[in-house]
Amino acid sequence: MNVPEPVQGSPAGEADPEKLIVLRDSKDPAGPVIFLTRRQWCALLRRIKSGDYDPR
Hints:
Elements: E1 20-24, E2 33-37, H1 38-50
Antiparallel strand pairs: 1-2
């Protein structure tokens, strides 16, 4: 999956919520951040719901 680069000059917490979905591990706030477009987010949810990421 292609992940867009963060908005130049914007820390992760300040990304435009209308353009990007920003994900991070709440247990590690200083850790890595994933930026997804709304289309990528919806595609990820569809794949999760269809069982593509089922650990079994």
